[in-house]
Amino acid sequence: MNPMFNSSAAQSMDSSAGIMTADGAMNKTVILLVITVVAALFTYNAYNMGQLTSMTPIYGSAIVGFLMALFISFKPNTAKVMAPVFAVVEGLFVGGMSALMSFMYPGIVVPAIGLTFGVLLIMLTIYRFNIIPVTNKLRTGVMAATGAIMLLYAVSFALSMLGGIQVSFIHEGGVIGIGFSLFVVGLAAFNLLLDFDFIDKGVKNEYPKNMEWYAAFGLLVTLVWLYIEILRLLSKLRD
Fold first, then answer.
1. 163 lies in a domain?
2. Contact yes or no for 91/222 (Cβ under 8 A)
């Protein structure tokens, strides 16, 4: 399952409201995506119109979003209330990053959005037709690799903030940089398989209804990550 999910999540939720359904999880995912897009458009336009000029909102929303993701992950019963708030914060971050990348690489945002949803549809098809089965071995490998990438990003962010040191292959182009971004985009795509599998298992095991918000939260995390990584990849290809 997605690293944002923990195994005891369903047990910590109230089952009196009903049981989880696939349609319910998808509907709540759409709600969170709409909230994210609206917030992203607000920030994107604010940067383009010169109302925002510093990087502070981007860094701030990234840090707050990361902390909120950890909180929801360990407190899944809060997802119904916290996931929409998280979507707003992620939207502010996505809008800021999109404006920055659009300024540096004009025309990059629309292809990144198209590729993100293209990958989503491809991975959903792969999952539905069981082309790549979600086995325990695959799940463990994807989660371990995702954890390693998140740790690398955390170290890179800390080095950048404290000493201005950049990990070159994360931010720069070249064969190694492009190869790294391709790997991370692929890893984010495989996380979508784990998200779909979690929803299926939740429906089959009759998880509480509130797990729909938790599942939607996990899908949003993966989709935002995938979009940002595709932006990185396209920018490196431009360079």
1. yes
2. no
Q: Residue 177, Cα to own-chain centre: how many angstroms?
A: 21
CA torsion angle for 27, 31, 36, 37 (degrees, to 10)? 90
Question: Please, how many CA atoms are within 13 Å of residue 76, restricted to the half-sphere of its CB?
Answer: 24
d(CA 21, CA 40): 29
| pLDDT recorded at residue 195 | 97
- Asked if residue 89 is part of any domain, the answer here is yes
Low-confidence ranges of the chain (pLDDT < 70): 1-17
Report d(CA 211, CA 215) in Å as an integer: 6
- 101 and 108 Cβ atoms separated by less than 8 Å: yes
Q: Given this model, what pLDDT does residue 203 score?
A: 95
Alpha carbons 193 and 188: distance in angstroms, whole number? 9
The pLDDT tens digits for 63-96 are 999 999 999 999 999 999 999 999 999 999 999 9
Give the type of residue at 26. Answer: M
Q: What gap in Å lies between CA 133 and CA 119, rounded to an integer?
A: 17
Domain count, the chain: 1
Residue 10 placed within a domain:
no
Name the CA dihedral angle for 80, 213, 229, 231, rounded to a multiple of 10 degrees: -70
Amino acid identity of residue 199, one-letter, is: I
104 token code pair: 């540096």
1, part of any domain:
no
Q: Helix or strand or coil: residue 16? A: coil
Q: Residue 7: what pLDDT?
A: 47
The range of the structural domain enclosing residue 177 comes to 17-238
Tell me, what's the pLDDT at 1?
44
